[in-house]
């Protein structure tokens, strides 16, 4: 067993992979006085961070990066050898979907190999922390052997490996890292999670969150079960939204409020809408479905959760056709492109699927997002005209779909739509507008809102 005090120094930390998660982990640790070095193969990202700039839109992260770099607590490099000078390495590289829906471990494998190589010949103890989301079994079957063969160290002797999934939400990642609900620490039964716990005790001091210590596979599973659970709540409320739309007077928001007051259910993740997107939920669902099948199990509920979500953008198209008939040549304004507010991330954003579906129907689509326009343009190409303001987006439109609930869209009143649009017709895909106010002044439909006139 590893004694908690037996790591040479906890103050030097390396973080491999400077995406949303890695940079947040790095910057938060650096802001609390740890010496952190970020390692990434992307030279552009590394030079941005080295200059104190934040390559992603994540509230509060830019300030932390700037300040930490200025104070020499945060630096970045493409050189894996830097890891040698640290005593803890967080792996935060991406684990995207492979073509069969499973998990693509190529970044994990190459990061593990490079980390191992930089540690070969190092005598002091070193802790590797797996923060990337990996399907159960990956740490034991892939990461540990790769680290061992490339470093010539045996895990459990001078090299230690912990699984420590992250639960950071984009848009509030800094806050979530500073105030997590809990810490999940998985180790090989060698007590090495105590080493990591020590680091977190320094980070959180008197505000230590609850800690769950377990083995590798349970720690890996918890991350998937967490995301699947949340995704299932969303698909469940979205299924009720479908039902509500068929029942005059029904409103899914009231239903969600009512069930959310049941303490066993609680109010979170019950917002009906055009579906969940992002870099985690869809990919993680596919990965756990694929893994289950490989193990000979059909995970029905997870599969349906995913399928219900896949159908969300189609529900909006149906609503649009009910309102306007044939969509060919109709001008459609989409407000919001990011998969949720406060991020420029458009990965698997339902708004993008919506744009594609409208384009397939030969509608002319204009879209506006406060920060995600550039990223969306890269994915959508000519399917959409991306404009720089709400006004430009709405001007001359026959239909507007509210797709992402940014604050600046919440401030819009019926008069804005009536003033700019050719035909003021609005579909509220995220339930941010008051149905009474909007229905009394313009043609208005909303996800999960029953209507009397079909
Ligand atoms: C999620 C998990 O919350 C986080 O713990 C994990 O580490 C990564 O995946 P994130 O993808 O950043 O975080 O976003 P989240 O806030 O969970 O929202 C995911 C998607 O679900 C968004 O598209 C959002 O719009 C949608 N959503 C969320 C709903 O449609 N309804 C809800 O009630 C909540």
Essential attributes:
Rossmann fold; single chain; 454 residues; 14 strands; six-stranded parallel β-sheet; 2 domains; 43% helix; 18 helices; alpha/beta; binds uridine-5'-diphosphate-xylopyranose; 14% strand
Provide a descriptive summary of the structure in words.
The protein is 43% helix and 14% strand. It has 18 helices and 14 strands. The chain folds into 2 domains: 4-209, 3-Layer(aba) Sandwich (Rossmann fold), CATH 3.40.50.720; 243-446, Rossmann fold. It is of the alpha/beta class. α1 packs across α3, α4 (106-119) runs parallel beside α5 (138-151) and α12 crosses α13. It is elongated. The termini are far apart. The strands form 3 sheets. The chain has a 6-stranded parallel sheet, sandwiched between helices. A 6-stranded parallel sheet has the order 11-10-9-12-13-14, with helices on both faces. A two-stranded parallel ribbon has the order 7-8. Uridine-5'-diphosphate-xylopyranose (UDX) is lined by residues 166-170, 227, 230, 234, 269-271, 273, 276-278, 280-281, 339-340.
